[in-house]
Amino acid sequence: MTAPAEATQSGLDDLTVFLKAAGDGLRLEVLQVLGQNSFGVLELCEIMAMKQSGMSHHLKVLAQAGLVEKRREGNSIFYRRRLPPADTRTSALHGALFEQLDQTPLETVTARRLQGVQAQRAAQSRAFFVRHADDLARHQDLIAEHEQYAEQACELLDRAAGSRATSGNGSVLEIGPGDGRFLAPLAQRFKQVLALDHAEAMLERARREVAEQGLDNVRLVLGEWPEAGTTLPAVDAVVMNMVLHHLASPAAALQAAARQLTPDGVVVVTDLCRHNQKWAVEACGDFWLGFDEADLVSWAGRAGLVLRDSLFLALRNGFQVQVRSFQRGGTEIDKRL
């Protein structure tokens, strides 16, 4: 049995390691940056304008304190903030630190470099979709066919948006409509449908679908998300079907979605659960290998969105799809269907 004095010293040791890691301004700024997204070491070096050896040292200190963790995406290693664990002596400090950092604006120069790195990621994604627009649907259907999740996404949208989705009087924005197959269900539910995509080649496919279906209440917009949100009107719902894993910053995308909503508006997200099938990066342009359940809830919560419903579909070819609905300023429900 551990003696009381030894247990006390162990607790102080943990606290010392934590406070040492958090007692450095540069490391705090790294934690601010990681609150925006996961980044590789070289990306963090670019954002923080420092050499790799120095950045690796700071990340090691933060990892030893339990403030960051590594995870592999394809052939790359990314660092991200570790969610505060519930069973450690530093849990309360851990959560309070992240909350304060999220409320503190980044230094202007650091924020500019961060935007530059995210712009590079977005350009890579856009170039991929330009090159592979014609065969993308075939590859993506190996992961998750549209029919596999479309009905469930509509169900969660109806439940969350209520009369705004059933009266035909509301408005909705779909991010990344792809070939436009989800636009018809949206057009049946809402008076006004906006669809935003960053690749003209993909929008052309959506235009053909809109024309074939005779959807006269759909407007297609070319632009980057989340930047384009500043030029779009507020909407009652934002839909992102199999989009987040292509975006440079999923957390920023959810924050932008929250800002785009009218009061009590809703966000419906369909995406992959965390997986390890690296071929999806090359074949489908996936930037992230799906998401842990807690990731989406954490990012949405920081954006002021409250979880309503969760639905996890059966595995297909080793991939599992999660469908989640969130409400702006709502009360947490989290009904698992």
TrEMBL record:
CDD domains: AdoMet_MTases (cd02440), HTH_ARSR (cd00090)
Domain HTH arsR-type positions: 7-105
Phylogenetic lineage: Bacteria, Pseudomonadati, Pseudomonadota, Gammaproteobacteria, Oceanospirillales
Species of provenance: Alcanivorax xiamenensis
Domain of life: Bacteria
This protein's name: ArsR family transcriptional regulator
Annotated Gene3D superfamilies: Vaccinia Virus protein VP39 (3.40.50.150), Winged helix-like DNA-binding domain superfamily/Winged helix DNA-binding domain (1.10.10.10)
PROSITE patterns: HTH_ARSR_2 (PS50987)
Signal sequence segment: none
